[in-house]
Amino acid sequence: xxxxxxxxxxxxxxxxxxxxxxxxxxxxxxxxxxxxxxxxxxxxxxxxxxxxxxxxxxxxxxxxxxxxxxxxxxxxxxxxxxxxxxxxxxxxxxxxxxxxxxxxxxxxxxxxxxxxxxxxxxxxxxxxxxxxxxxxxxxxxxxxxxxxxxxxxxxxxxxxxxxxxxxxxxxxxxxxxxxxxxxxxxxxxxxxxxxxxxxxxxxxxxxxxxxxxxxxxxxxxxxxxxxxxxxxxxxxxxxxxxxxxxxxxxxxxxxxxxxxxxxxxxxxxxxxxxxxxxxxxxxxxxxxxxxxxxxxxxxxxxxxxxxxxxxxxxxxxxxxxxxxxx
Length: 326
Prior knowledge:
There is one protein chain. This protein is an alpha/beta fold. The chain folds into 2 domains: 6-91, Winged helix-like DNA-binding domain superfamily/Winged helix DNA-binding domain (Arc Repressor Mutant, subunit A), CATH 1.10.10; 95-326, D-Maltodextrin-Binding Protein, domain 2. It has helices spanning 6-18, 21-28, 32-46, 62-91, 100-107, 111-117, 169-178, 182-188, 201-207, 224-232, 246-251, 281-307, and strands at 51-54, 57-60, 93-98, 122-127, 141-145, 154-167, 191-194, 219-221, 237-241, 255-256, 263-273, 312-314. The strands form 2 sheets. Strands 3, 4, 5, 6, 7, 8, 9, 10, 11 and 12 form a 10-stranded mixed beta sheet that branches. A two-stranded antiparallel ribbon has the order 1-2. α1 (6-18) crosses α2 and α1 (6-18) crosses α3 (32-46). The N and C termini lie far apart (69 Å).
């Protein structure tokens, strides 16, 4: 006798369990005629009737009931195993959403260290300016730039933002050729505007009592990564996040415009998720790793700026406008 047709047996088991071909077809995602055809083929292979058809209902024959008992146990075990494997894969997967600039400039160079420490886990990173709708999206946590005002969620500060005017060394020399007064340098500089920064040029100029009549921004970008890159290439002065360009500062590719101006200091980078997500082991691990890595990074950045004579002025993020990802 030929080996039993597993597909036909699967279709038979579904029909026997539901009692109708239509419901079995709906579960299997195929047409009722295809189900009936497979059941007839199985009956032909076994040489027995598996169902008696009475008043539009299907009733198992003795042979059919015997086959159903075995098939049900076998396919139930397969379904349970498939579910368990799916859960295991899900437990080993981490879905993070990050702002584009933070993802490219900060998280990207560091996530390999986390992956090396946890090779059994799969990590997916979605770089998007849109905040996560946790009720409808399969995202474990959102690493978000903003004021921290996300009601109904677990919101923890990861890192402060340290904002100051920065430019390339060659561009700073050009400004110093114009004037030794930092205010005059700013007035003659090409200012690069990051439109989604919480602390922007209009705040900064007003706080430092610098008035620039007819102020325009020759460069306006919706990503800090672009503003920082243009400043590094000598395109102007960016008022942006030193937290995102510490490497360029340490290599001397970017320099503070003037240490006399205090670095703007405020809580800006947050770990956001539903509270229940902290129960997942992988979420707890990445949370703890991020918190420790951010703390080390911030201490290193503060030390660098302090050694270059910079002071810090703390501001309350809730007093700032914009609240969007740089």
